[in-house]
Amino acid sequence: MNETPTTTAPAAPVGQLRRIWPSVAGVGFAALVGIGLTGGVELAPVLAASAVVYLGAAAVGKPAAAWPMFFATALVITLVRLLLDERVDATWFLLGGAALLAVYGFLRGGLRPAHGLPLQSVALVGFGGAAVVATGIDPDLGGYLVAAGLLGHAAWDFHHHRTERVVARSLAEFCLVLDTVLAVTIVLVTVT
């Protein structure tokens, strides 16, 4: 008796999705954040948060801590927007939290390796400083500054994704896509 062999559909789409889920999630989160965006300065806290996540993971000394840090920064931004006056910028809350994380990392002895807490602190000053400056200048110019900062952080994400240092590789990929999509969105919103 001849039985016809049965074939099953390859699991390639599921396997592919498992491989690219951080990029897909980055696009989805960018779409969520971009809903109703009227100007790039509104996303200054996101620029600050991008650096806080890296500094936090370096301070704790565990790349996997980057995902909880990301969710914590997203929660801070959301709560500030929902509960406080719209003139209050979440950037300052994020930078305050980053200062506490930096002190914790220093007390924990996190000054080594140099690409950890020391370099992430410098990055926080740069990206966080750009976020602060953007909120205090002309809104269009501030929007372009936030977009440039996000593109700069996307390069930072790419480097960390490639070297697999400081943060989980999945977080670096997620943020690379998120930062790039948000930067392009800011430019498009500002230009139009």
Task: Give a summary of the structure in a few sentences.
The chain has seven helices and no strands. The chain is mainly α.
Q: Overview of this structure, please?
A:
- By secondary structure, the chain is an all-alpha fold.
- The chain has one domain.
- The chain is 74% helix and 0% strand.
- Helix 2 packs parallel to helix 4, helix 4 runs antiparallel to helix 5 and helix 6 packs antiparallel against helix 7.
- The longest helix is centred in the C-terminal third of the chain and has 25 residues.
- The radius of gyration is 19 Å and the shape is globular.
- The termini are far apart.
- The mean pLDDT is 92.
- Keywords: Membrane, Transmembrane, Transmembrane helix.
Poorly predicted regions are: none
**Order of SSEs:** HHHHHHH
Number of strands: 0
Give the helix tally.
7
> pLDDT average, as an integer?
92
Rg estimate, integer Å: 19 Å
**What is the SS-derived class?**
mainly alpha
Strand content: under 5%
Question: Main β-sheet: number of strands, strand sense, barrel status?
Answer: none
- Molecular shape: globular
- How many separate structural domains? 1
Q: Please bin the fraction of helical residues.
A: over 70%
The separation of the N and C termini measures 70 Å
